[in-house]
């Protein structure tokens, strides 16, 4: 097999989508992400980022075009496997944590896949180790800090051993230490990552490649450093580096 034939983690082709109320959110999105890549998905409010993400695990179904996850097209008869392959960490960890203990929350997905006993325990420990939360396994999630809950939410998804991890605004509401800790975790993971964010420095820090979705189409796809140095592009799509950000860091 040559490189060109390698199976992409994510392959979106010509994806268009119109909400039932007639509002068209995506107008032919093309995006290919290779295994192990970390890609930032940037774009202004209302650009279609959430709509695109909701197609990756079949919450929304392509009006036109297709989505493939490691070679498998998202379709009605494989949604369980697609949802194992695509782990989405939503912005609010409380959307994902609902069991009495951290361990039970992280075990929930793999138990649904049929894992039991020592195999399940090992899977949970592995996921908690990846996010540095093993010592909190028996604690109720609602007793943890926001940053710790976000790490547990990441663990619930990693416990499924996904092919692609989608992080929706991972740095939101984190203090500087929490931000740095999560960045270290993300960098240590070997999984393919698609990171939806308005936090351009965080994208720069974690994702070598960035794409800009605007008005329902991908308008840029380049090394993050180059993309963020394009002031015209940023201005045209309402993307702003923080005040005082030192451009020589680009
Ligand atoms: N359920 C819905 N019904 C109709 N239109 C919707 C619905 N959800 C989103 N939209 C519209 O689709 C477009 C894309 O929205 P989407 O939420 O995907 O953008 P986004 O890039 O995630 O924005 P943000 O950065 O604000 O989260 C917007 O015009 C939005 O108003």
Automatic annotation (TrEMBL):
It is a peripheral membrane protein. InterPro entries: AAA+_ATPase, ABC_transporter-like_ATP-bd, ABC_transporter-like_CS, ABC_transpr_CbiO/EcfA_su, Co_trans_ATP-bd, ECF_ABC_transporter_ATP-bd, P-loop_NTPase. One of its GO terms (biological process) is cobalt ion transport. It is found in: Cell membrane. GO terms for cellular component: ATP-binding cassette (ABC) transporter complex. Residues 10-240 form the ABC transporter domain. GO terms for molecular function: ATP binding; ATP hydrolysis activity; ATPase-coupled transmembrane transporter activity. Keywords: ATP-binding, Cell membrane, Membrane, Nucleotide-binding, Translocase, Transport. CDD domains: ABC_cobalt_CbiO_domain1. Probably part of an ABC transporter complex. Responsible for energy coupling to the transport system. Part of an ABC transporter complex. Responsible for energy coupling to the transport system. This is ABC transporter ATP-binding protein. It comes from Antricoccus suffuscus.
